[in-house]
Amino acid sequence: MSVTGGSAFVIPAKAKHPDAACAWMIRLTDEQNWMAAEKARVQTLAKNKGINTGLFTGSPKADQDIKAQYVKPSGSAGFDQVIETTYQVLDGSKGVGSSPVGQQIKNALDNAIVSTLLGQKSATDALKAAQNVAMNAWNQTKH
Hints:
The protein is mostly helical. It contains 6 helices and no strands. Helix 2 (31-48) packs parallel to helix 3 (60-70) and helix 5 runs antiparallel to helix 6 (123-140).
């Protein structure tokens, strides 16, 4: 299971120039611009002697092209395995979408993970409890 977060662009309902805003967003997030952003990032990483973990853009093609061109072995087998695992997990991930109770669902899942890792509950019991919390939160939105 993976959980990611990030930013999103929105166009307010009463925006003066919604078409221009949409065109800007599309241009900003096209693959060519992601590659330019990564090229600049590579220079900063080299200057600061950082490790390039890749750039996770929301565009699978850009992510893979960035990985192929810029992500090189770091010299740490463990760190390199984490980078590779991140790409593998994201490759098979599914989006959940937004929900009026998204934060409650995330909290319930986090609590299930922690209680399992601490040995307080089995994974099955922890996930059942998380499901109950999530469903209770969801059912409250119907009133």
